[in-house]
Amino acid sequence: MNATSGVLGQTRLELAAAAREARAAWSWTATLWVLAFVGAALVPLVLSTGRMADLAGFVYLALAAVGLGYAVGLAGIPSLGQGAFLGIGAFAEALLRAKAGWPLLPSLVIAVGVTTAAGVLAGLATGRLRSAFVAVSTWILSWIVLLALTSFPRISGGAQGLVLPEATVLGHTLTPTGHYLVGISLVALAILALAVLAPRGPGLALAAGRDEPAAAVGLGVPVARLRLGIFTASATIAGLAGALGVELAQVADPSSYGPILSFELFVAVILGGARLPLGPVVGLAVISGFKHLSEQIGGLRGLPPGRLEEMLTGYGMLLVLGLGGAGLLPAARTWWRSRIPAPRGKRTQAAKGSPHVIEQPVPLEARRVSKHFGSLIALDALDLDLEPGKVHALIGPNGSGKTTALRALVGELEPDGGSVALGQTRLEGPARPRALLGVVGTQQATAVFADLTVLQNALVGAGLRRQHAGPVRTVLRTPKARRDDEVTEGKARAALSLVGLFDPDRPAAELTAHEQRLLMLASALATQPRVLLLDEPAAGASATELDRLAELLDELRDSGLALLVIEHNLRFVRRVADQVTVLEAGRRIASGTLAEVATDENVRAAYLGRQSLS
Amino acid sequence: MSLVVQVIVTGLAAGGVYGLFAVGYSLIYRLTGVVYFAFGDLVAFAVFTTLLVAAGTGPVSQTSLGLGRFVLGLGVGLILCVGVGAATYVLFIEPYLLRGSTLGWVASTLAIAFALRGMVGAVFTRPAYVFPDPFHFEGLGRNGIVTIAGASVQIRSFFVIGLAAGLAALAAWALDRTKRGRALQAIASDPEAARFVGLPVETLVALTFGLVGGLAAIAAVVAAPSAPFTVDSGALLGLKGLVAALIVRFGSPWAAFAAGLGVGLAEAAIDNMGGIGLGPQYGELIPLAFALGVIAYRSLRSEPAPSPA
Fold it and tell me: Cα separation of B151 and B154, whole Å?
């Protein structure tokens, strides 16, 4: 009894907290959204039933388009397979209903499940391909579904298609108006879910993987898994739309699914603006407008239906794509914002971040690490020791294997031989498990997530330690996910103030080159590393910026972090490094303090000597 | 035995056309990283332009056409094909390449495909067209058919095979031996360096978009009389060429051409295997599924390194 009331009390508290959050997040845009939805729900009052059926069909297509936006907009996957998934959902539903005589709801569950399974398979098959290949293989998938449906009339009902029995739910007939209301509710939910997901943990991680895959993987983002997940979600939504659409039409026509539908949905997403949840709906509305217009013109000219429509739709698409850029909706938003001065983003106080202290300092030991590319020996049995509270500089001429060494240590490259250990733990495998243990490196090239803000960049790093905030929990805003969000944001802000970036809402693309390097460092720090490997952090820094960076490295050293710095600027190395290792042609030719190394004959010959000559 | 001969001849004749498409897809991909989804429809556009000039939009009989009128038609078709191919590249593909937007060129190449197909379809409104045959193969053998080892095969098939192989050899030769061809190879390996040493990269790439279309169009026009040609035929030919190119990962011209022949042979073989449960309905499906399987296999085996969109 007590336990129950305890749980209830807890639930009440959580609900109150959720309500507070909702109230705080409420804005006039949210009011507009609600009004738009209410307006859409009132449409059946003014339209005839015949029109409602058309409109409901459009809404189900819009649902599939919003679903495609998940894959295209958030993850940048150029999927041309949405028409195939609609077809799979539709025919699974139609077969269960027409041939097996199942009732509506169980068939719907199975049809959506079948599409999800197809989505997982297609996602696994294409997950690691270059995006051009993803486009081709999903395109071929669309053709396969079309050909399979049209070549086997025994299954797909031939030219007449499959005719479904009347749709009833709990004894009520599902009318076109009912379908329409179900449809707009699902579209609203799908848009809401995307709007909730995109600016939070998994959504940011997907955007990071889209903009700079290597950097995202380096921060421990499970890019491949997230991409598979979002692709599957996108297919699932298409399956739902296909199954419901076939219930609405009450006949499944094999020729209406496949490449053309995939193309229309893809163009709808690009046209409307893939990055905004509502973009695909706007794009689809524009396409439908084109088709409608072309039908009218074609009818006047007495042409067979479809042909002129295809041509004008194609032309219209090219025209709008040519003008488009990021899509209609983002363009409209930019125009609107340019008219109304946006409120300046809040600058956070230059307060000192919470002192960064490593709780369990740990050394990293590399022994005889080797790597060759063909006949080129990039690393030749390299030994390297990084100690907690020490800055270790890795220097050497260009092409001596410094970056290769870093990439082998963080798991970006698989070495051909040798071992790496963190304390007593042997380090193996890709970047994510290593990052979870606390070994993180930054990229040599400047690689910030340009479409995200400064704070969001740091959040991608901080997201590594999220425990209860997978995509589903994030969308549902469970209490644990919300607490995780708070904790993550705290870490990200602390990392930003540590490196001295105080404008969290600025787009990362607007930062100077050096600030972008600092932001990369902040994202890496937000993962709470114990060993941090920095590839040329001082590149492009001015004298004052170098001083600040040196102070920052001192501070990090004092916190107990083990640091590796790849650097060309020897004055900077002298200022920050406790230990120096010199590489030449993949071999360690000297190791010790800079003073010791500088007197070494090999080094003078190989590196410093050459410099003093120049 | 007779069935085997028939499968080989019809398979190679169809495969030769697919192979030329595959050569085109591969060349364009290696030059620009673009998969030119409009390729099939560009060729259909050229084929129907040829028909329009040679015989108009009305019904034609196979014998009603003289060689001169046909050559004129083919010439106009090819010139338009090169022009439209180059123009679509400059107007609708290059802008996205400059921005590094994969999503953009995927959308625009598909839109080009539908615009071209719609345009052809708005002029040629009947469901299917019989193409005139300027070479009068029906005058040879028995109505253009010859019997080899018990199999009846169209004499045209041999001509198509020979022509396709000749065109593929021409493409390979031009790439390896001519100045322009070597310039294209330089662009494929490093566009920036090619631009730096003063090659007119944009012009060469734009021309290639048209020329590879022309190459496939010649073969498609010559092969067209063997079966009814519809507005959608080009897209299907293009799709099979794409499948062939994909199987060899957009490889060298000869690899792509060979893959095209392979797809043609497989299709012809499967079409004729009605006895063991296969048949025409599988002829198109199985090569597509095979290509998807090959992609999936390579994807699952490769290192986990997603590339930017």
Answer: 10
In tens, the pLDDT along B76-97 reads 989 999 999 899 888 888 888 8
- What's the whole-model pTM score? 0.89
Residue B118 to residue A508: CA distance in whole angstroms: 43
Residue matched to tokens 């939504």 = A237
**Is B243–A140 a contact, with Cβ atoms under 8 angstroms apart?**
yes
Count Cβ neighbours within 10 Å for each residue of B105-116 and write b for 16 or more, e otherwise.
bbbbbbbbbbbb
Take residue A157 and report the two structure tokens written for it.
């009902």
Burial annotation A556-594 (CB, 10 A radius, 16+ → b, else e): bbebbbbbbbbbeebebbebbbebbbbbbbbbbbbbeeb
Task: Write down the pLDDT at residue A172.
Answer: 79
Q: For A431, name the nearest residue in chain B, comparing CA atoms only.
A: B304
Residue contact B239–A303, C-beta within 8 A: no
Helix (H, G, I), strand (E, B) or coil at A579: strand
Candidates A144, A145, A53; CA nearest to A91 is A145
User: With b meaning 16 or more CB within 10 Å and e meaning fewer, what string describes A170-181?
Assistant: eeeebbbbbbbb
Closest CA to A129 of A112, A115, A144, A141: A141
> Using a CB-CB distance cutoff of 8 angstroms, which residues of chain A are in contact with residue B110?
80, 263, 266-267
Amino acid at A209: G
pLDDT for B306: 36
Whether A267 and B110 lie within 8 Å, measured CB to CB:
yes
What is the rounded CA–CA span in Å between residue A355 and residue A362? 19
Cα separation, A598 vs B92, in Å, equals 57
Amino acid at A566: I
Best of B299, B300, B302 to mutate (most A CBs within 10 Å, chain A): B299
* Alpha-carbon span B63 to A171, nearest angstrom: 65
d(CA A82, CA A119): 10
Dihedral sign for Cα A484, A485, A490, A493, please: positive
> What number of residues does chain A have?
614
Q: Exposed e or buried b for every residue in A413-442, given b needs 16+ CB within 10 A?
A: bebeebebebbeeebeebbbebbebbbbbb
* Residues A68 and A266 sit within 8 Å (Cβ to Cβ): yes
Most confidently predicted of A142-151, A469-478, B141-150: A142-151
Residues 79-98 of A with CB under 8 A from B: 80
Give A-chain residues touching B125 at CB under 8 angstroms: 303-304, 307
Helices (H), A448-478: 454-462, 471-476
| Both structure tokens of A432 | 């994510």
A97-111, A307-321, B59-73, B282-296: range with lowest mean pLDDT: B59-73
Beta strands in A160-301 (DSSP E): 162-163, 168-169, 172-173, 251-252
3-state secondary structure B59-117: CCCCCCCCHHHHHHHHHHHHHHHHHHHHHHHHHHHHHHHHHCCHHHHHHHHHHHHHHHH
Residue B195 CB burial class (10 angstroms; 0-12, 13-18, ≥19): middle
Measure the CA–CA gap between B263 and B248, rounded to whole angstroms. Answer: 12
Number of Cβ atoms within 10 Å of the Cβ of B159: 16
- Please enumerate in sequence order all residues whose Cβ is within 8 A of that of B170, keeping only pairs 6 or more positions apart, or say none: B215
Q: Which of A143, A150, A210, A261 to mutate to test the interface with B (most CBs of B within 10 A)?
A: A143
Nearest CA distance, A257 vs chain B (angstrom): 16
Task: Please give the average per-residue pLDDT across A82-108, as a whole number.
Answer: 90
- Distance from the A517 Cα atom to the nearest Cα atom in chain B, whole angstroms: 20
